[in-house]
Structure formats: C-alpha cells, structure tokens
Structure to design on (148 residues):
C-alpha cells in the first residue's frame, strides 16, 4: 500500500517546513496543524480512502495528530501533439487521440502535492492564499510529495 509511504512523506515534509518556520521566527511553535489539503491527480494511482486511513496512522504522535485531510482530485487531461486536441483522459485513461491515433501528452492528472496546511491560526496555502508567494516561506515551499 504505497498510500502509507505517501502519507508518511507528506507528514515529514510538513513537519520539516514547520521546523524551518519556527527557526526563522515566522512561528513560535505553538501553532497546531488543524487541516491538510492534498492535490492528487486521478492518474497518480492513489486510492483516496486508503490515503485517508494511512494519513491517520502517519499523523499519530506528530504535530499533525487529529488534523483533517482534504483531497482535491485533479482530472486527467491529455493533448495530442499531432492534431492539438486537448481532452480529459478519463478512467481508465485513454492515452491516445481517437481521431488520429497519436499518443497523447499528459498535461494534468499525475499531481501529488501539498496544497494547503491549516494552522490553528490562519491557513497557509502553497503559493499563498492571497496570490503572492513570499520567497523563503518554508511552509509554502514544501508543496510537492514525491510519488513512489
């Protein structure tokens, strides 16, 4: 069940970002993580219910214990390099262009990202909720979970 390794890695990345935030003085360390939003593409091969179960296990005895997990699903999207058609890949994915038979380039659907970490205070989103990304803000930089 690779969902457990994904959950463990997400928790580790968030905790690392919280540590950097504390060291930089941006946070006093008293904040509690109340929620995490993960952005997951439908082609990433992740089972949402299994990930929720794994997240509960991975967060035990961490600063994320009891945090709510939200999952944003990103639809698969492919583009034909020959004719330029862009269409959803669907599930199971159709990875070739039906009209011309050319293999599609996958544009979306493989994402596996930490989209938002909610602290007991205001939420901190990857890329900043207000649209402005502050360079060096460690919580905002910890937004990609490697897919194994």
């Amino acid at each position: 069940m690779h969902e457990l390794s994904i959950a463990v890695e997400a928790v580790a990345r968030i905790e690392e970002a919280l540590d950097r935030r504390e060291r930089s003085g941006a946070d006093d360390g008293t904040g509690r993580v109340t929620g995490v939003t993960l952005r997951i593409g439908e082609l990433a091969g992740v089972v949402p219910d299994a990930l929720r179960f794994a997240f509960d296990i991975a967060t035990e005895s961490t600063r994320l214990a009891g945090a709510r997990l939200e999952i944003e699903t990103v639809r698969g999207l492919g583009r034909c390099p020959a004719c330029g058609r862009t269409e959803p890949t669907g599930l199971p994915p159709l990875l070739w262009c039906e009209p011309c038979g050319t293999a599609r380039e996958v544009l979306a659907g493989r994402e596996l990202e930490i989209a938002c970490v909610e602290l007991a205070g205001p939420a901190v989103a990857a890329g900043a909720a207000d649209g402005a990304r502050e360079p060096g803000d460690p919580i905002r930089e910890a937004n990609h979970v490697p897919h194994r």
Q: What stands out?
A: The longest helix spans residues 2-23. The beta strands are 33-41, 68-74, 77-79, 86-88, 105-108, 112-119, 123-125. The longest strand covers residues 33-41.
